[in-house]
Amino acid sequence: MNQSTSLFGGFAATFQRDLLLAYRNRGELVNPLVFFLIVITMVPLGITPDPNELAKLAPGMIWVVALLATLLSLDGLFKGDFDDGTLEQYLISPQPLYLIVLAKVVVHWLVTGLPLMLFAPVLGVMLSLPAAGFVPLMLSLLLGTATLSLVGAIGAALTVGLRRGGLLLSLIIMPLYAPVLIFGASAVASATEGMPSTSQVAVLGSFMAISMIGAPFAAAGALRVSANG
Predict the structure, then answer these.
(1) Domain range summary for the chain, segments of one domain joined by +
(2) pLDDT digits (tens, 9 = 90+) for 35-74
(3) Could you identify which of 31, 163, 197, 216 might form a hypothetical disulfide with 187, taking C-beta atoms 3.0 to 4.6 angstroms apart as the criterion?
(4) What does the buried/exposed string (b/e) look like for 141-152 if buried means 16 or more CB atoms within 10 Å of the residue's CB?
């Protein structure tokens, strides 16, 4: 019981610390959301204002922009801890590193993925997304953005010691993001066409479950390699 309490205490302390840091730097938190809004706003201006055409583009466009917006904030997931020496303290701490990584990923999703999910219906209206697509859109983004944060943590951990690792981070994790993008956009598109989207949502749920189990361990191992390298 004491050991379980100690493990949870390490997770909770990291969670509270990162959430507080995110609140203090809340100006940076709006960047992915602003990017999300600007790109979607430009679509009718740059492609077509026809509602029927926009409705066809909406599932893919919203998902692509959500993926890119998540990617924008990944580079700093561990960078601050690496620069100020906190990462070294994590490595020698008796607390399991994978729980610390998981806490940081949860905060990243709360301040990045969750706002994108909640704001997506507004952008769906802007792109004339049919009403049948709103629930699958939010559900797919709920599962998908969580997976993006978990998988992205692996790339962020591998590139944390590099001075300009943003491009390499994108190259590492983009192939891993592709299945999430495909099934996420497909779930919304199927719903707008009157077909069931439960199978795509189920696949996204399995992606998230697998990522929840494996990604923190992989990211923890990558952090040890990057710190020692």
Answers:
(1) 2-228
(2) 888 888 887 777 777 888 888 888 888 898 889 888 888 8
(3) 197
(4) bbbbbbbbbbbb
